[in-house]
Design a protein that fits this description.
By secondary structure, the protein is of the alpha+beta class. The protein has 2 domains: 32-114 and 317-333; 116-294, C8orf32 fold, CATH 3.10.620. 22% of the residues lie in helices and 43% in strands. Helix 3 crosses helix 6 and helix 5 packs across helix 6. The longest helix is centred in the middle third of the chain and has 15 residues, at 178-192.
Length: 358
């Protein structure tokens, strides 16, 4: 199968039609639950002229929650170093030169991934809000505050409208279970906002704007959801990466962002629950397929560490410094090949809100 390169944002992540509803049980159509592929991504930089230039690029290594990722090659094997920055392992390039030259910087990796699923939707085993405060003060300190770049506060749990909205949802829920409250805030998000890309504008909305407009793309909705959770004391963070999907024998690679909330206990990934904020189905489908689920299409590149520097790094790309006599063109790329579905299963939810793949 040939490779295809596509850039964009997914509007209906994980959206599948009902296959059967019987006796309180819901079964969705069979879909991939284990896949493999090869991915290459990074930046191309074309330098022309007679002056000097310096290229700085940190390329995040890919990760999955269940499966394996192997770096098979670097697209430029000079002037690089490996490092760990905050929560992320990177390959970094620092290239200085002069005159005309072209560079292709990035990673080639093979991926085998299985869907990640929190089976119990009732929240059994999750901490209460008080339990989080008592047992996980370090996580709360890291992931319950505002985050900004130099000029804009994107994640803002202190915004009055966000705080009041989250408090209203919490009071109506009549529960102190952090998983249940995170799910109720997810329901509010799905019922009161709509996914909408920015036509002609690639800027990211701060959460304070998204809650007023009630529309946003994957970044905007994720930042709003994270702000809502943080405002009631549930740690939350953003994840950036790609969605890799096959439809009608064509593979799409889509830049994407989603969220995680921390509910403690033995749930999820060491207490962290993945949440897909950009879906656009009915509320029940959104809960079943996008809350506590990270399906095989998700490939992680960047995990927030809760700092302003982390947020700034996640929304910035490659940096190129050059003299006025130079012309520099740069653009990102991503390519997937050798895509294979290794396993497909149906997602089933029983009358007790337990989920399984069968």
């Amino acid at each position: 199968m040939g490779s295809i390169i596509i850039f964009g944002i997914l509007a209906t992540s994980g959206c599948l039609d009902y296959f059967d509803i019987n006796g309180g049980n819901t079964t969705y159509e069979s879909h991939p639950t284990k896949i493999s592929y090869t991915i290459s991504y990074g930046y191309k930089v074309n330098c022309t002229g007679n002056g000097d230039y310096n290229i700085e690029y940190d390329c995040d290594k890919p990760e999955v929650l269940i499966g394996t990722v192997t770096i098979t090659d670097l697209l430029h094997d000079l002037d690089y170093s490996e490092a760990t920055l905050a929560n992320n392992d990177i390959i970094g390039w620092n290239i200085s030169g002069e005159g005309t030259d072209n560079y292709k910087l990035g990673i080639i990796a093979t991926v085998e991934v299985k869907s990640f699923l929190v089976s119990d939707l009732s929240g059994t085993g999750a901490e209460t809000l008080q339990g989080l405060q008592t047992n996980y003060l370090d996580v709360i300190g890291q992931y319950c505050h505002k985050q900004s770049n130099e000029t804009i506060t994107f994640i803002n749990p202190e915004n009055p409208l966000i705080k009041n909205t989250a408090a209203t949802v919490t009071n109506k829920a009549k529960s102190n279970n952090s998983f249940v409250l995170a799910k109720e805030l997810f329901i509010w998000l799905k019922q009161h906002t709509n996914y909408q890309i920015h036509v002609g504008d690639n800027s990211i909305q701060p959460a304070s704007i998204t809650i007023q407009k009630k529309t946003g793309d994957c970044d905007d909705l994720s930042f709003l959801y994270i702000s809502l959770c943080r405002s009631i004391g549930i740690p939350a963070r953003f994840i950036r990466g790609y969605l890799v999907e096959e439809n009608d024998d064509k593979v799409s690679v889509i830049s994407h962002a989603w969220a995680e909330v921390f509910v403690g206990g033995k749930l999820g990934n060491y207490g962290w629950i993945p949440v897909e904020c950009a879906g656009d189905s009915d509320t029940k489908t959104e809960i079943n397929q996008n809350f506590g689920v990270e399906d095989v299409s998700h490939l992680r590149l960047f995990e927030d560490d809760g700092s302003d520097a982390s947020l700034n790094a996640s929304i910035s790309g490659i940096m190129v410094y050059y003299t006025e006599s130079m012309k520099v063109d740069m653009y990102s790329f991503v390519d997937v090949s050798k895509y294979s579905t290794l396993e497909s299963k149906e997602l089933c939810i029983d009358e007790n809100n337990n989920r399984t793949y069968v």
